[in-house]
Design goal:
Blueprint: H1 2-18, E1 24-26, E2 33-35, H2 38-49, E3 56-63, E4 66-74, H3 82-93, E5 101-107, H4 121-133, E6 137-144, E7 148-151, E8 165-166, H5 168-171, H6 174-181, H7 190-194, H8 203-215, H9 224-238, H10 250-258, H11 262-273, H12 276-285, H13 300-318, H14 335-340, H15 349-363, H16 368-385, H17 388-401, H18 406-416
Parallel strand pairs: 1-4, 5-6
Antiparallel strand pairs: 1-2, 3-4, 3-5, 6-7, 7-8
Helix pairs in contact: 2-6, 3-4, 8-10, 9-10, 9-11, 9-13, 11-12, 15-16, 16-17, 16-18, 17-18
């Protein structure tokens, strides 16, 4: 078989990369850690992703002896063109401009019955050729199943016994012990990593949300309601533990009702990535919200919070300080496009992280279209972070809650192409967590 001969030809040189005494340095949140064998590499991956991959391909870019970006992709469907898939992988990995090689890990339970006939051989052959033409040699690769792991290319029984090594050698590796000691942990599945998305709606909040939706139907993006909604959303994003919002259901119901207006929902995304001043400017210059809106009387609890927020903003202005906003300021009229497509120079990741926590919490106490809006925004945030697997999970849940929900369908189509957000393609703009970053 031609593919098998190809793999055999290059097997020995690849095995020497990590099966010997070579040390690879991988960056963690504290200091570089030495890696001396494949089990260390395989133990690193679920820690950096936050979950154990299944039916996936994971790629680690290499710059000399240093591990760079981590990319996880679903294995392609049977009818997919392996060459197209390989070219997509190369385009993602080329975002790490310092990379000069790639490590590959194939996670699958597809049968591997003979050493010279590994699963997905045609696909890996295409990956090998395409990555090589891009200057990213496929340095080594492994297959991990639910029972064993083994080198994908090695046919030497002395180094790579059949059918493979026990999975315990991964969890017992030195690197895994070091990462656990540092406090790192991961879930066994993507679903567990995302967490339960079950909703337990609050009866009072649901009732008031319906009341406010009907009361201001058609007015959310034509009056002062849009501006007031953004001010209150900003207060929650910048002060997520503000107990004032917990004194009654009215403010939360008001905000959830407003999410049923696409203009406000989309403005909340811009607000999360930039700041209140930028978002308000963008809504006015793009015509999303009126410049001089007709004033509406909001519920007393909302009016109180708006008044308190105005006073806090004035004190802040008098003190000469300001809440950090987006590091860059594009033209207001272009801000919606640049945020949605992640072409803005850089978002405010601190705000985005606070918004993610807030939206996830609110998604657990509501249902219907407001919940689909929150889950769709969560999906967009995860896509922006470069975590397509998590984005897909949120968006699927949004569409399960409200079938045909437009934003959810649009974002799912984007995520489904495997496209990485431009922010995730650059070291300077990519999101990082307290532990490690992952694509």
């Amino acid at each position: 078989m031609q593919v098998a001969r190809h793999l055999s030809t290059y097997g020995t040189s690849r095995v020497a990369t990590l099966c010997g005494s070579t040390t690879v340095l991988c960056m963690t949140s504290n200091a570089p850690i030495s890696v001396s064998n494949p089990a260390d590499i395989l133990s690193y991956i679920p820690h950096v992703l936050g979950f154990q991959p299944q039916e996936s391909l994971v790629f680690l870019s290499m710059s000399g002896k240093r591990i760079g970006a981590t990319l996880r992709l679903d294995l392609p469907m049977a009818e997919a063109d392996p060459l197209d898939y390989a070219q997509s992988v190369r385009s993602y990995l080329e975002a790490d401009t310092s990379a000069d090689g790639v490590l590959m890990v194939l996670y699958t339970d597809r049968a591997w019955r003979e050493p010279c006939s590994p699963p997905y051989a045609d696909l890996v052959h295409c990956l090998d050729l395409v990555l090589e033409t891009g200057g990213l040699g496929l340095l080594d690769g492994w297959l991990v199943s639910s029972s064993h792991w083994r080198d994908y290319f090695c046919l030497d029984a002395a180094c790579c016994p059949w059918p493979g090594h026990p999975l315990a050698s991964i969890t017992e590796s030195v690197l895994n012990a070091e990462l656990v000691y540092q406090g790192s942990a991961y879930e066994q599945t993507l679903e567990a990593a995302v967490g339960t998305l079950a909703s337990v709606p609050s009866e009072n909040i649901q009732r008031l949300t319906s009341v406010y939706s009907e009361q201001w139907k058609g007015k959310w993006d034509r009056t002062s309601l849009g501006r007031d909604s953004l001010i209150l959303w900003n207060a929650l994003i910048t002060n997520p533990d503000d107990t004032q919002f917990g004194r009654g259901p009215e403010p939360i119901a008001f905000l959830l009702a407003g999410l049923q207006c696409a203009a406000i929902r989309d403005s909340v995304i811009v607000l999360s990535a930039t700041g209140l001043a930028e978002a308000l400017d963008a809504t006015e210059h793009s015509g999303v919200l009126p410049v001089a809106p007709e004033e509406q009387i909001v519920p007393p609890e909302c009016a109180l919070l708006l008044s308190r927020q105005a006073a806090a903003d004035q004190d802040e202005a008098d003190g000469g300080s300001s809440v950090p906003t987006c590091p860059s300021r594009p033209e207001p009229a272009a801000l919606f496009r640049e945020v949605f497509l992640a072409t803005l120079a850089a978002p405010n990741w601190t705000r985005m992280d606070c918004a993610h926590t807030l939206f996830l919490r609110l998604a657990g106490i509501t249902c219907g279209e407001p919940r689909s809006a929150l889950l769709s925004i969560l999906g967009w945030i995860e896509w922006a972070r470069g975590r397509g697997s998590r984005a897909h999970r949120y968006l699927q849940e949004a569409l399960a809650e409200t079938p045909g929900y437009t934003l959810g369908e649009l974002l799912l189509a984007l995520v489904g192409t495997g496209s990485l957000s431009p922010w995730a393609r650059s070291r300077e703009t990519a999101w990082t967590s307290d532990s490690r970053s992952a694509a």
